[in-house]
Amino acid sequence: MTKAPCKSDWTLLESKGVDCGDKRLDRRFATLLQTMAKTPGASIPQACGGDHAQIAAAYRFLSNPSVTPHALLSAHAEQTTERISAHPTVLLVQDTTEIDMSQPEQRILGAGPLDDSLRQGALLHLLHAFTPEGSPLGSLWHKIVIRPERPKGKAAKRPTRAQRQRTPIEDKESYRWLEGLAAARSRAQDQEHTRFICVADSEADIYEYLQPSMIEGQSAPLYWIVRAFQDRALQSQAEGDDAEKSIPEVSRLWEACAEAPIIALRKLRVRGRKAKLMCDKRSRRQPREDRDIEVEVRVRAGATLRPPARHGHRLEPACINAVLVREKNPPEGDVAVEWLLLTTLPVRSEQEVSEIIEAYAKRFMIEVLFRTLKSGCRIEDRRFESASSHLSHLAIALIIAWRVMWLSQIAQNEPEKEGGSVFSEAEWRVAWLKVKGAKEPMPKQVPSAGEIIKLVAKLGGWIERGGKYASPPGVQTLWQGLRRVEDMAAIWSLQNPSTCV
């Protein structure tokens, strides 16, 4: 039997080309990534096996001023670009998550407020690549926002609406969405053979984000989908070029879409959610149960948005396509599902509209990535003295979270993938022995990746069901199973030195 490649080979690829300004730091990063990847969720002392020298080296590395998230993720971004090149269409999903660094005993040096409470930390804004099926390909770009301390006393008075309107978009926190779009456009121009679709939730419903429309026929190979939050004004096409002499007919986008004919009925599965704040009365923030729904799909093509007023300059009208997805018969007492999707993708056929809906539905995968980062890698449980060390650790954990999530998607989308390209010989053998024992003999050939992932997930608590309630392993059972497999594989390798871990 051909010896399977080491699982650690992927960590070498993700650290290849990293530049921290010192080759010793580059080597330490590769070692630390390999060490932490073996036990997702373990603390640094646990991951280092209690070795004092390794623990001290890890903390020195994370506190080094030359070690930054940008430096650590640069090699991962290049590998992500390589993975993207193998796909004709890629989704670039933007989203932001809070990284809570609060500690009860001390204040973290360099952290900023997360809200009006005493919580301290930073915001991580990510541009992550996914296949249309939802498999993660890696992070291409990120931005970390640390909010300044809010003034106290009389100076703590919040700016008025007029003051906020006079603030340039470049000076606002929301400008990160435009920066993410610019990063996506830059990647798209470098890879002309891949079609990129940038997907964002309603926080990106900023007129400047919508204005540089890239509709079909333009040279830039980038499209975008944004879930609408504001009911924007529509502007009719006024005859002539002198808009000042004519008063265009203005209506509202939501109303215009609701009046459009139904072009399709679709069945969707929506996930339940819990209310984060009981005082938040917005419909899209209300709790709901998991359920299968039927939705009506309506389309408004070539809608011209009336530009809002901006202090000191005038914006141009933006031409976009809109797709309204509305639940037909919502359960009594529950909030109806409704998406108004703004896009530059064409909407000429039902198939093109279905692609837009499916692409936005995959936006949820970045939420799964954030959950893996926080609950699987447990980044908010770490205790560092400074925010810079915490963020360097976050960069390493982000690569590991991508890998764990990628494994869960392999089980769903590519179960027949060669198992030896994903797991080492020691890993799949100990998983097989632990789960199957004497029930089934050890196979002579390496099992498929899907079969090995099921074994690992069972060690993490996954229950294999059939029929109506059948579901593939999720990220939680995988990260729990991976930790057990790595411990057992380490013992196996001691007894079998020729086996790679």
Detailed description of the structure:
Strands 1, 2, 3, 4, 5, 6, 9, 10, 11 and 12 form a 10-stranded mixed beta sheet that branches. Strands 7-8 form a two-stranded antiparallel sheet. Among the domains are: 93-237 and 248-274 and 286-376, Transposase Inhibitor Protein From Tn5, Chain A, domain 1 (Alpha-Beta Complex), CATH 3.90.350.10; 414-495, Transferase Inhibitor Protein From Tn5, Chain A, domain2 (Orthogonal Bundle). The chain has helices at 9-15, 23-37, 44-47, 52-63, 69-84, 161-166, 175-190, 207-210, 253-258, 350-361, 365-376, 387-413, 425-436, 449-459, 475-495; strands at residues 89-100, 112-113, 120-130, 136-145, 195-200, 222-227, 233-235, 250-252, 262-270, 291-305, 318-327, 338-343. The chain is of the alpha+beta class.
Summarize the SSE layout with pairings.
Elements: H1 9-15, H2 23-37, H3 44-47, H4 52-63, H5 69-84, E1 89-100, E2 112-113, E3 120-130, E4 136-145, H6 161-166, H7 175-190, E5 195-200, H8 207-210, E6 222-227, E7 233-235, E8 250-252, H9 253-258, E9 262-270, E10 291-305, E11 318-327, E12 338-343, H10 350-361, H11 365-376, H12 387-413, H13 425-436, H14 449-459, H15 475-495
Parallel strand pairs: 1-5, 5-6
Antiparallel strand pairs: 1-3, 2-3, 3-4, 6-12, 7-8, 9-10, 10-11, 11-12
Helix pairs in contact: 1-2, 2-12, 5-12, 11-12, 11-15, 12-14, 13-14, 13-15, 14-15
Key phrases:
501 residues, Transposase Inhibitor Protein From Tn5, Chain A, domain 1, Transferase Inhibitor Protein From Tn5, Chain A, domain2, two-stranded antiparallel ribbon
Short description:
This protein is of the alpha+beta class and 501 residues long. It is built from 15 helices and twelve strands.
